[in-house]
Amino acid sequence: xxxxxxxxxxxxxxxxxxxxxxxxxxxxxxxxxxxxxxxxxxxxxxxxxxxxxxxxxxxxxxxxxxxxxxxxxxxxxxxxxxxxxxxxxxxxxxxxxxxxxxx
Length: 103
Hints:
Keywords: Hydrolase, Protease. The chain has a 3-stranded antiparallel beta sheet. By secondary structure, the protein is α+β, with helices and mostly antiparallel strands. The chain has helices at residues 4-12, 15-30, 45-56, 60-73, 83-95; strands at 33-38, 75-81, 99-102.
């Protein structure tokens, strides 16, 4: 019978495992991008809700909650993910007259 502790240590010497851990860290970093929607005095609640549903693929409840947070807190993170995911959403929000940024 092999010592399970030895097998555990041996796993860390495995180049494949090290690669998988590096990929996992890179994926975590990509998920740290945030699409932030800012409050304005121009757009209606219904318009913002509809934009969040269409552009960010929110449910009605998510869109309503984000819209309320934007209104009362001044901003809200409406999506997190890779730049590849959130950059097009950011551009679409801007094209509809909403104020957003990627952080």
